[in-house]
Amino acid sequence: MSQAKVDRYKAEKANRKKTMKKEKVMRTFYTILGSLICLVIVGWIGYSAYGYFRAEDTKTASPTEVNVDALTDYLSGLQTADSTQ
Questions:
Q1: How does DSSP assign 13-60, residue by residue?
Q2: Which value, in Å, is the radius of gyration of the alpha carbons in the chain?
C-alpha cells in the first residue's frame, strides 16, 4: 500500500468510533422521523374517516309522502264486489 492509503486508513481507524456513533444517531433519527410520518398519515386517514362517517350519522331522514288513494279505491271496490254476491 502507498503511504497515502496507510495514512487515510489510520485516520479512518482513529475516527471509527466517532463515525459509527454518528451513523447510529442518524439511523435512529431517520427511524423516528419515518415512524412519526407514518403515524401522522394513519391519524389523518382515521380522522377523515371518522368525520365522513360521523357526518352520515347526523343526516336526518326526510319524510316521504305516498299517495295511496288509488289502492284504497281498488280495495274498497273489491270488498263491494264480494259483498254483493
A1: HHTHHHHHHHHHHHHHHHHHHHHHHHHHHHHHHHHHHHHHHHHHHHPP
A2: 40
Instruction: Report the distance separating Cα 28 and Cα 30, nearest Å.
Output: 6
* pTM greater than 0.70 (yes/no): no
| Cα–Cα dist 10/40, whole Å | 45
pLDDT in tens, the chain (85 residues): 689 899 898 888 888 999 999 999 999 999 999 999 999 999 999 999 888 888 766 667 678 888 889 988 888 888 665 555 5
